[in-house]
Amino acid sequence: MDRKALTSDLTSYDFVKFTALALMVVDHIGAYFLPEEHWFRAVGRLSAPMWLFLVGYAKSRDFSWPMWIGIGLLLLSSVFFGGSLLPLSILATMLVCRAAIDPLMTVIARTPSSLYPISLVLFFATILTFPFLEYGSVAMLVVMFGYMTRNRESLPFDKSQYLQYGILVAFGYFLIQSYMFFPFDMYQKIFVGLGLLAVLLGLSFFQPRAYPELTARLPRPLVGLIQIGGRYSLEFFVAHQILFKGIAAYYGTDIYGFFDFRILQ
Question: pTM of the prediction?
Answer without folding.
Answer: 0.95
